[in-house]
Design brief:
The chain has 335 residues and is of the alpha/beta class. The protein has eight helices and 13 strands.
Length: 335
Amino acid sequence: MRLAVVGATGLVGEALLDLLPAAALPLEKIHALASAASVGRRVAHGDRHLNVADLEAFDFGNASHVVFAVPRAVAARHLPRATAAGCAVIDASTVWSADVAGPLFAAGTPGGSFSGPTDAAVVSLPAPHAVVVAEALAALQAVGRPLFLGLVGMRAASDRGRTGIAALARETADLLNARPRQPTPFAQQLAFNLIPGTGTADAGGALADETAVARQLARLLDAPDLPIDVTLIEAPVFYGAACVLRVGYAGPVSVEQARAALAATPDVTLADPDAEGLYATPVAHSAGGGGLFVSRLRALPGGNGLVLWALADNIRHGIAGNALRALDALVQGGR
C-alpha cells in the first residue's frame, strides 16, 4: 500500500498518522500532503517524521490509497485527480453531507461495513455522532430492532478543526479576563455556553447537519424507514462526540441483556460509575483515545426502550480511527 494522507497537518491527518504505526496494514510508502503553506513542515509518524509535500503538485499515480481529511471544497478539487489515477479513496470531507455517493463506512454496522471485495472508487465517512450511535446500536442488535431513535448530541470545538480549538481557547481567556469577545467561527459565544444550532431549519424544524446525521444513521443501520430525531448542540469542550440516545423497541427490553451485549463487544467499554459515583466524560475517558464508552444505561419509562450516554473521541475514533478501519476493510477485500 502506497498511502497518501491529504490534510496531513490537520487534526484528522495528524491523528491518522499517529495511529498508522500500530495498524496491520501493508504500508510501503506514506505521502503526507497539505497546502503550499505547509510544505517543508514535518509531521510525526510513530517514532519518525515525514516531510509534508504540496498537494497541488502531487502525482496521485504514486499512491494506491488516499485519505482526504480536508474541507469539502479542497476535496472537490483534488479527489477526482485521485480516482482518475486509480486510487482507492477514503473521503472524510463529507462528514456533514447527507447525500454521499458509494459506500458509507462505519465498521461493524449493518449497512456501513463490507467484508468482501468492493470496486467503489470512493468510500465516504459519516459524521462522528453517526459513528458513535451506529456502533452502539450495532452492539445492541441482540436486544431487538429499534422502532425509533432520539439523539441529542454534543459537538466539540474540534469539529471545526484547529480554528475551532483556538477560538474556544481564546474566547475563554478573553471572558475570564474581562476582554471583549472577538469574532469566531461560532455564531454565538461558545465558552461557558451551549449553542443549540445555527442557520435556518427545514419545515420539520431540523437543521442541515442534523438531517445529515439522521440520513447517515439510516444508511449505517440499513433502516431507511426508521424514525430518527437528531438535535446537535455545540458544547464548550475541545474534543469528544457525546450523546444521549433514546431507543424505542416494540416491547419490553432487558437492561441486563443490553449490558451483557455491550460488555461483550470489542472496542466498547461499559463504563459503570467509579467508587465516587462518577460517570464517563469526554475529558476523563474518551479524549485522545480510541473506542466507544457507554454509561447511564437504563430503561425508558414503560420498559419498551433504552436510554444511554455514549461518547468517543470525535477526531481519533470518529474520523481518523474510522478511516483506518475503512483502509483495513479495503485491503481485506483485495483493494
